[in-house]
């Protein structure tokens, strides 16, 4: 299961993050300073002819800042217990479960999705259902066309035979052929561009 959070940095629950920071840092003044750094910001738009919009306050964790990934990791640092293994990188989540029985895999992943859904709701985070897919990794050619049926919020999540995780295309048997072919094409294109630039000098 590959999941993605909707507007993850924009929906961080400030009070919840403050509580988690207080558990990690014994200094309340430092926690207050950290929260002020991204909680007390505002912006104004100015057009080319000098017109200005009214001042608006920003409440999100600023993406691109040094602290943003660390603060977000702290915000989701205590995930709920699941049957499946959990893999998290920033706002990209993945849960994996191995079993010889397909129904056992589908049952475990469906239960874990319900558990994660309740956890995210409590912490005011939301799954991006358009980016959340199920996938299988195995070497059984007889089951090459088998699709997982994982339920979440009374809906079956879309199945993807070659999902992308952290920029890497995964195939059923983990040969990485599609990913390597895509990488080869991009490198060939860029090498050709560099050769033209080098020859034009």
Key traits:
single chain, 9 strands, 201 residues, three-stranded antiparallel β-sheet, 5 helices
Explain how this protein is built.
With 201 residues, the chain is α+β, with helices and mostly antiparallel strands. It has helices spanning 14-24, 28-39, 67-75, 102-122, 177-200, and strands spanning 2-4, 41-43, 56-58, 85-89, 92-96, 151-152, 155-156, 164-165, 168-169. The strands form four sheets. It has a three-stranded antiparallel β-sheet with strand order 1-5-4, with no helix packed on it. A two-stranded antiparallel ribbon has the order 2-3. A two-stranded antiparallel sheet has the order 6-7. Helix 1 runs antiparallel to helix 2 and helix 1 crosses helix 3 (67-75). The longest helix has 24 residues, at 177-200. The radius of gyration is 22 Å and the shape is extended. The mean pLDDT is 83.
Question: How do the helices and strands line up, and which of them pair or pack?
Answer:
Blueprint: E1 2-4, H1 14-24, H2 28-39, E2 41-43, E3 56-58, H3 67-75, E4 85-89, E5 92-96, H4 102-122, E6 151-152, E7 155-156, E8 164-165, E9 168-169, H5 177-200
Antiparallel strand pairs: 1-5, 2-3, 4-5, 6-7, 8-9
Helix pairs in contact: 1-2, 1-3
A few lines on this structure:
By secondary structure, this protein is α+β, with helices and mostly antiparallel strands.
How far the N terminus sits from the C terminus, by CA atoms, comes to 50 Å
Instruction: Please tell me the overall pLDDT.
Output: 83
Strand content: 5-15%
Class based on secondary structure composition and strand pairing: alpha+beta
SSE succession = EHHEEHEEHEEEEH
Q: Rg, please?
A: 22 Å
Largest sheet: 3 strands, antiparallel
Give the strand line-up of the largest sheet.
Answer: 1-5-4
Question: Helical content, roughly?
Answer: 25-40%
Model regions low in confidence, pLDDT < 50 over at least 5 residues: none
Shape from CA axes?
Answer: extended
Number of helices: 5
Question: What is the strand tally?
Answer: 9
């Amino acid at each position: 299961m590959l999941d993605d959070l909707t507007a993850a940095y924009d929906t961080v629950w400030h009070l919840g993050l403050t509580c988690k920071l207080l558990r990690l840092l014994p200094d309340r003044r430092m926690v207050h300073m950290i929260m002020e750094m991204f909680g007390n910001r505002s912006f104004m738009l100015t057009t080319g002819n000098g017109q200005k919009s009214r001042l608006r306050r920003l409440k999100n964790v600023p993406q691109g800042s040094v602290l943003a990934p660390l603060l977000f990791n702290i915000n989701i640092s205590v995930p709920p217990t699941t049957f499946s293994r959990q893999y998290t990188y920033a706002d990209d989540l993945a849960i994996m479960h191995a079993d010889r029985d397909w129904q056992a895999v589908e049952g475990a992943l469906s239960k874990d999705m319900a558990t994660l859904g309740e956890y995210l709701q409590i912490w005011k985070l939301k799954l991006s259902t358009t980016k959340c897919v199920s996938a299988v990794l195995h070497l059984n050619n007889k089951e090459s066309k088998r699709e997982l049926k994982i339920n979440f919020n009374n809906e079956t999540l879309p199945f993807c035979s070659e999902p992308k995780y952290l920029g890497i295309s995964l195939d059923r048997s983990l040969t990485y052929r599609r990913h390597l072919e895509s990488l080869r094409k991009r490198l060939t294109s860029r090498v050709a561009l560099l050769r033209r630039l080098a020859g034009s000098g």
